[in-house]
């Protein structure tokens, strides 16, 4: 969070040993990532961000608890907090696409630590992962719709080379 990037990221001393294509990709991807950590650099921003995170964490923990109730796990709410933390830790490591397999094993093992049969714990892990994946997909589609984005704006195979409408009209006026 405290990293200060050079004005031209491609010229950073430690980045020179990278192949040019990787250096170019890093120059595009890393600066926005570091900017996203601004709340961790600024005490005022952190003081605002942390309390805003608690309701989201509570809602997520309640979702894990409700699934536990549906599966008949009969665990205390504090166990679902631990399960939620384990699930979030494992998905923060991009080991497989959408953490398929890794998520299920990790959640199954965390649930089994609380004395739940591994078969039931595996069912719980699969159920929560399917539900969470569907929920993320649906809310993503809703966000795309609400932002009036087109298919090409979200799913693309190469960089957008079209000029925005304002740039096109300025270029035609210059001629």
Q: What characteristics describe this protein?
A:
single chain, about 180 residues, mainly alpha, 8 helices
Description:
The structure is a single chain. With 175 residues, the chain is mostly helical. Helix content is 68%, strand content 0%. The chain is built from 8 helices and no strands. The longest helix is centred in the last third of the chain and has 29 residues, at 118-146.
Radius of gyration: 22 Å
Beta-strand fraction estimate: under 5%
Number of helical segments with 4 or more residues: 8
Topology order in helix (H) and strand (E) letters: HHHHHHHH
Q: What's the total number of strands?
A: 0
Largest sheet: none
- Average of pLDDT: 84
Class of secondary structure makeup? mainly alpha
The residue fraction in helices comes out at 55-70%
- Regions with pLDDT < 50 over 5+ consecutive residues? none
- Cα separation of the termini: 47 Å
Taken from the alpha-carbon principal axes, the silhouette is: globular
């Amino acid at each position: 969070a405290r990293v200060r990037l050079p004005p031209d990221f491609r010229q950073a001393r430690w980045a020179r040993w990278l192949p040019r294509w990787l250096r170019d990709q890093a120059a595009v991807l890393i600066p926005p990532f570091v900017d996203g950590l601004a709340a961790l650099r600024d005490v005022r921003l952190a003081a605002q961000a942390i309390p805003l995170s608690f309701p989201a964490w509570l809602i997520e923990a309640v979702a894990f608890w409700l699934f536990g109730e549906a599966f008949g796990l009969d665990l205390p709410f504090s166990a679902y907090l631990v399960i939620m933390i384990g699930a979030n830790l494992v998905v923060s490591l991009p080991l497989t696409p959408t953490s398929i397999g890794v998520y299920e094993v990790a959640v199954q093992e965390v649930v089994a630590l609380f004395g739940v049969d591994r078969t039931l714990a595996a069912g719980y892990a699969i159920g929560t992962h399917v539900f969470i994946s569907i929920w993320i997909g649906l809310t993503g589609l809703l966000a795309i719709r609400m932002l009036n984005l087109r298919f090409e704006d979200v799913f693309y195979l190469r960089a957008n080379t079209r000029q925005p409408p304002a740039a096109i009209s300025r270029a035609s006026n210059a001629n």
